[in-house]
Amino acid sequence: MSLLIADNCINCGACLPECPNEAIFENRSGAEATGIRVTEGIGDGDGIYVISYDRCTECVGHFDEPQCTAVCPVDECCIIDPAWPESKEVLLEKAQKLNPDKQIDPAKAWSGVRTGPMAGAA
Ligand code: SF4
Ligand code: SF4
């Protein structure tokens, strides 16, 4: 799954530079202007930061936990987007494709990948 940013985002910007996949944007229209997609209904009106499901790997391949969640000062703000179930293997492949010159580590994956709804279905 990708993560999403909920309406309680306070636009602090802390998450954006931490994302290893450049999946975070200041607002929905900014993401869409570059052809990158955001889950329907998320960030409408451009009032909050958004995560693109095209680029989010839940930090799999890079870190042991989602970095946006780790740095976000707001509880329950960077959360799982149930619209995009992806297995660890799919997320690793996605991470490598997005970062062809980077070493992707299969050992880097948080437990949420395997316990989330439909994990392993892809
Ligand atoms: Fe980026 Fe990781 Fe957050 Fe996904 S979980 S948006 S890859 S920092
Ligand atoms: Fe919003 Fe959290 Fe990112 Fe700050 S760190 S911009 S509150 S999602």
Report on the biggest sheet: 2 strands, antiparallel
Which overall shape is indicated by the principal axes computed on the Cα atoms? Answer: globular
Percentage of residues in strands? 5-15%
Q: Strands of the largest sheet, in order across it? A: 1-4
CATH C-level label: Alpha Beta
In the predicted model, the low-confidence regions spanning at least 5 consecutive residues are 116-122
CATH third-tier fold name? Alpha-Beta Plaits
Distance between the termini: 10 Å
Count all strands and give the number.
4
Helix and strand element order: EEHEHEHH
CA-based gyration radius:
13 Å
Mean pLDDT: 92
Number of DSSP helices? 4
Number of domains: 1
Q: What structural class results from the helix and strand content?
A: alpha+beta
| CATH architecture call | 2-Layer Sandwich
Helix-residue proportion: 10-25%
List the ligand species: iron/sulfur cluster
Summarize this structure as a short list of keywords or feature phrases.
single chain, 122 residues, two-stranded antiparallel sheet, 4 helices, binds iron/sulfur cluster
Question: How would you sum up this structure, described in words?
Answer:
The protein has 122 residues and is of the alpha+beta class. The protein has one domain: Alpha-Beta Plaits. The chain is 21% helix and 10% strand. It is built from four helices and four strands, in the order E-E-H-E-H-E-H-H. The longest helix is centred in the C-terminal third of the chain and has 11 residues, at 88-98. The relative contact order is 0.24. The model is unreliable at 116-122 (pLDDT under 50). The chain binds iron/sulfur cluster (2 copies). Residues 5, 9-15, 49, 71-72, 74, 77-78 line the site of one iron/sulfur cluster.
